[in-house]
Fold:
Amino acid sequence: MTEHPGQASWSVDDIPYHAIEHEHERLASNRLMLYTVATAAFVEITSDVYTRNLADFFRGDAEVVDWLENAWEREELQHGAALKRYVEAAWPDFPWDDAYRGFLGEFLRFCSVDQLAPTRALEMAARCVIETGTATFYRALSEMDQEPVLRQITAAISADEVRHYKHFYRFFQYYREREQPSRTAVARTLWSRSREIDAEDAFYAFKHVYLALNPRTRFTPEVYAAFRAELRPLAARHFPHRMASRMLLKPLGLSAPIGRLVVPAVTSASRLLLLT
Structure:
């Protein structure tokens, strides 16, 4: 197995979960944060499924597959384990096993290689969008909540996701050179992935978190929309818009002068989108 420089410098054992004891009363009433953290944990802890799909798609590229299976997957699963342990410590009554079992059964029915982009270059561009989304989400989450243990976890995860972005971007450069996708095709991929804000994995993760907490309530898409509407203004205040804009635009290979013109406009647009 190849050594992968720049791997995560933290582990779940580094997190002082015992400190949450002093926050139990406040956290118990923060249902929005429970929904948010548990939903994220469900998605992260299922990263082995994403890894298998990507490894199958890039089979034959030993460097990419090795990094996916021996670095990326391990770190993504650590994110899930860290968030799961936080949920168990902060909300000990949450029925994790039953809720996650329901999510996994539904998730496995739609997560497949067929969902990936048509070419390797475009899939690496799509991965850049996804890593941008996770890096900025966890950055915002680390600023949204003042509970220090959650801040530590989410800040560490955000830093990992930025590193992952750099790997996917390097792989994208390699495949862009080989496959020569048009800038229009890359832009279309970036745009389509950016618009997938109601991704199926997050939707179904939230669904099963919600049903576990509201077993006698019928779940509908409107329930998820209401959750997102409640979370959106809180996230918007802390969302790193400029960071997101730079990361999203990088695969387009814009010249420096054009980039300086475009980034502020995209940054402003992202602020408006988060508030609508």
Notes: The radius of gyration is 19 Å. Residues 148-179 form the longest helix (32 residues). Residues 265-276 have pLDDT under 50 and may be disordered. Residues 198 and 225 are 9 Å apart (CA to CA).
